[in-house]
Design goal:
The structure is a single chain. The protein has 165 residues and is mainly alpha-helical. The chain has one domain (5-11, 25-152). The chain is built from 6 helices and no strands. α2 (16-42) crosses α3 (48-82) and α4 runs antiparallel to α6. The chain crosses the membrane at residues 20-40, 52-71, 91-114, 126-148.
Length: 165
Amino acid sequence: MTMTHYMELLAVNQPWNLLIFMAVPVILAETVAISELYLLYTRDYDGPVRWLNRWAGITVGVYFTGVFIHLMQNAVVPLTASGGWRGPADVLAVGFYLAGIVPLGGIALLDLGLIGRGRGEHGRMAIHAALVGLFLIVAHIAMIFGMLDPTLLSGAVAAGGHAMH
């Protein structure tokens, strides 16, 4: 069975690619998500948990911007130009992974005070929480499609399998 480029990226150059492209952004995003629950429950927006939440939000947004640029230049553009995609699941996995730039970048912009200025702290945290939720959705969709045989959605017959009509 062939892997999607998403899974191949995580599998090669062990453990570095797994750390760079999965562990660092997910640990930072989960730090934001977990601290977010505390903040929304307590409304304590001035303590150390808010500092951690803000630091992790800015860090993950800036970090993932670098990942996004790197993968666009070194994977998406070359694969598209050469016709190297392995099927629809491959494109969906990489596309949803890279779509993480929208919520993660939004979180960083919010935490840097560049957007949401007209809202109170609780209002900004509501946007923050929505962006965290959006990130969880796109990241999990990327993982699901990333684990598929990339030819599965193309109608091609995978090794040992049968095409459904």
